[in-house]
Design brief:
The chain is built from 6 helices and 7 strands; from the N terminus they run βαβαβαβαβαββα. The protein has 198 residues and is α/β, with parallel strands linked by helices. A 7-stranded mixed sheet has the order 3-2-1-4-5-6-7, with helices on one face. The structure holds 5-O-phosphono-beta-D-ribofuranosylamine.
Length: 198
């Protein structure tokens, strides 16, 4: 069993998908041991507590530099015995110190088909608005490894979602979550934990 640490900042629906996957056997080779939030009021923390999962908050304002913050997160993850870090709606950039401590052991979910609508500045509803503005007919979600390039690490899984006439950024965000993110994130975690992905 691999120990999983989840990084969050917001509502935590992807965290919920991971918790559900652990309960229903989609994830059987890993266990969520801690949820770390960049924000003290993230609803994701409530979801973790309801499921008896340890939580911690690491807020930028409590640290002098980004390096100090990332070092503190890396130390906490190591202390908790975390093997794999999953970014599930984590709105900070993972810096060098954390990347080095967990080289090739950090994954992220992005709500588009990378390499479209990704990189610096593409987060939340902006990603979906950019897809609508461009006029693409298909979008989706991507799970990828995290490296020093924003959304630039190796792709693990992707799933496509059709854009409907009349879609808004909000309706599209919801459908991409339901039809893609909540499925492929747990699948990718199990692939890694079971050692089926090298
Ligand atoms: C998701 O759209 C995810 O792809 C993005 O941030 C959002 C997080 O939502 N990285 P939630 O906190 O998991 O509900």
């Amino acid at each position: 069993m691999l120990n999983i640490g989840v990084l969050v900042s917001g509502g935590g629906t992807n965290l919920q998908a991971l918790i559900d996957a652990c309960n229903n056997g989609v994830i059987k080779s890993g266990k969520i041991v801690t949820v770390v939030s960049s924000k003290a009021d993230a609803y994701a923390l409530v979801r973790a507590e309801k499921n008896g999962i340890a939580t911690a908050v690491f807020s930028k304002k409590d640290y002098g530099t980004k390096d100090e913050l990332d070092e503190a997160i890396a130390k906490y993850m190591k202390d908790q015995g975390v093997d794999l870090i999953v970014m599930a709606g984590y709105l900070s950039i993972v810096g060098d110190k954390l990347l080095r401590a967990y080289k090739d052991r950090i994954i992220n979910i992005h709500p588009s088909l990378i390499p479209s609508f990704c990189g610096d500045g593409f987060y939340g509803l902006k990603v979906h608005q950019a897809a609508l503005d461009y006029g693409v007919k298909v979008t989706g979600a991507t799970v990828h490894f995290v490296n020093e390039v924003t959304d630039g690490g190796k792709i693990i899984l992707q799933k496509a979602v059709y854009i409907n006439d009349g879609d808004t950024a909000e309706s599209l965000q919801r459908r991409v979550m339901e039809e893609a993110e909540w499925q492929i994130l747990p699948e990718a975690v199990e692939l890694i934990c079971s050692g089926k992905l090298k």
